[in-house]
Amino acid sequence: MRRGVSGIKHVECHPTVPYYLCGGEDGSVRLWEFGRNRPISSHRASRSAPGVTKIHFTAQGNKFGASDMNGNVALWQFGSSLTSTEPYVEVRCHSKCTNDFVFMSSSCFLATAGHSADGK
Questions:
Q1: How far is the C-alpha of 107 from the C-alpha of 36, rounded, in Å?
Q2: What is the DSSP string of 70-83?
Q3: Is the pTM of this model over 0.90?
Q4: Which of 51, 61, 69, 98 could form a disulfide with 25 if both were Cys (CB 3.0 to 4.6 A apart)?
């Protein structure tokens, strides 16, 4: 199925169910179901969140996250009730931009790649 949605920077499929996420240059993360013409929900880390750089589900599919151009990573729970559009945690990882991140082992740990003003 093709759909014209402007400003999409990253797409990630759920590992077990027919859902996928789209991260936009406006800072939004939209949850879609394959075969539907409209998103199921829209998420945003903060009102001032700039463009999404990456989005990922955990291997188990129970959480997802989005990194942004301000250096943050926001995490959401994913379950049968898809009502929470607010992240359960938002972490400042880099002072400039978080380019990518990965959930480690049991998804309790994150590894990030990005840019910071102090060069770390």
A1: 29
A2: TSEEEEEE-SS-TT
A3: no
A4: 51
Taking only the tens of pLDDT, the chain with its 120 residues reads 455 666 788 899 999 999 999 998 888 899 999 988 888 888 887 666 678 999 999 999 999 999 999 899 999 998 766 557 788 889 898 988 999 999 997 778 889 989 988 766
List C-alpha distances in Å: 90 to 4, 67, 76: 30, 10, 9
The rounded distance, in Å, linking the Cα atoms of 29 and 51 is 10
Residues 6 and 64: their CA atoms lie apart, in Å, by 22
* Terminal-residue alpha carbon distance, the chain: 42
Q: Which of 73, 59, 71 is nearest to 29 (CA)?
A: 73
User: Rounded to whole angstroms, how far apart are CA atoms 49 and 42?
Assistant: 14
Amino acid, res. 30: R
Instruction: Write the single-letter amino acid at 80.
Output: S
